[in-house]
Amino acid sequence: MKSAHFLIPGDPDTRTGGYLYDRRIMAGLTALGWRVESHRLDGSFPMPTPAALSEADAVLAALPEGTLAVIDGLALGAMPETVALHRERLRLVGLVHHPLALETGLDETLRQQLHVSEREALRHVRHVIVTSPNTARELTAYGVSPEHRTVVPPGTDPAPLAEGSGGVELALLCAASLTPRKGHAVLFRALARLRRLPWRLRCAGSDALDPTTATALRALLAALELTDRVELLGELDAVALAVRYRQADVFVLASWYEGYGMVLAEALARGLPIISTTAGAIPDTVPADAGLLVPPGAEAALADALARVLTEPELRQRLAAGARAARRTLPDWPTVCARFAATLDAVAAR
User: Fold this and answer.
1) What is the pTM of this model?
2) Phi, psi of 211 (to 5 degrees)
3) Cα 341 to the chain's mean position, in Å?
4) CA dist., res. 263 & res. 273, Å (int)
5) How many Cβ atoms are within 10 Å of 73's Cβ, its own excluded?
6) Residue range 99-143, pLDDT digits in tens
7) pLDDT tens readout for residues 165-215
8) What mean pLDDT is reported for the chain?
9) Sheet containing 250-252: which strands, arranged edge to edge?
10) How far is 257 from 252, CA to CA, in rounded Å?
């Protein structure tokens, strides 16, 4: 029986795109007949404590020689010395959702440290799996050549088309954890410019991953006097989130960076017009005829795009038609998992 071990830091049940990808890939490999074992690393990654690094080393040391081990990039890039110790004995594969140094809010010193660390770590794996063509391009600066990387984008579950709000106020939906990279502050300030227009924003996403940011966003809403028009729903399970998608008229995500943007694919699967940014992989995920994309952080441009989609029904219809066309091209999870398995097979055969 084919087998693979996955090393993933933190709580594997966390409801973010990266963790969801890991869970679905492991489940898909299991369905294909693989024996999959998951090893939970310490949640301090990507800023690991000495104890976290020792634990990761112990996990790798306990694996038999020749084992195929997939290390999530959230941990991999932060432990180059640990990975180097096991590069000859194990078949190591990196799974990079996006480079650590591209996280929002880092100072330049830390950004450089993470770049150097991840570049060194990637030297010690036999292959790298990335979740978008954009991330593949980004890894060129990390010394990862095209022959040593494979793009395996996330799958998207089939979903019914959104029905919309049916009301005078258009329902905007944002599905993203309350963290700096997701750009909620830019979105709120852009919407504050559009008070005269009829809209309501619902934000679905955890407020526990970065409590400081969550508190600051609540304070910003109060300062902008938008608490009656913006709902922070917290983390929703799949059923509750599906209800919000069904009731939405427009999907909006103001991210500073995305390694793929799984929620954008979910919005396309429901035929929703999209307002987002040109950051990272978003232009790869959202076709030009399905959304309006503006530069990340461009508050005025975001407000203009929102105003257009709120006031031009024909534009909303055109974008919705583009989204409906795109939904037919989205890869499903069985296809994605089969590609992931084929990539692991190739590594194991070397």
Assistant:
1) 0.92
2) -55, -35
3) 21
4) 13
5) 27
6) 999 998 899 999 999 999 999 999 999 999 999 999 999 999 999
7) 998 899 999 999 999 999 999 999 999 999 999 999 999 999 999 999 999
8) 97
9) 230-234, 199-204, 170-175, 250-252, 274-277, 291-294
10) 14
Q: Report whether pLDDT(318) > 90.
A: yes
Domains and CATH numbers, the chain: 3-155+331-348 (3.40.50.2000), 170-327 (3.40.50.2000)
Res 350: pLDDT: 81
Dist. CA 103–CA 257, nearest whole Å: 7
Rounded to whole angstroms, how far apart are CA atoms 119 and 70? 17
As a whole number of angstroms, the distance between CA 180 and CA 3 comes to: 37
- Report the pLDDT value the prediction gives residue 304, as an integer from 0 to 100: 98
In the chain, which ranges are continuous DSSP H helix? 17-31, 50-61, 73-76, 80-84, 108-122, 133-138, 184-192, 211-223, 238-247, 262-269, 282-285, 299-311, 313-327, 333-348
Number of alpha carbons in the 13 Å side-chain half-sphere of residue 88 = 1
Containing 275, the helix (H) or strand (E) segment is strand 274-277
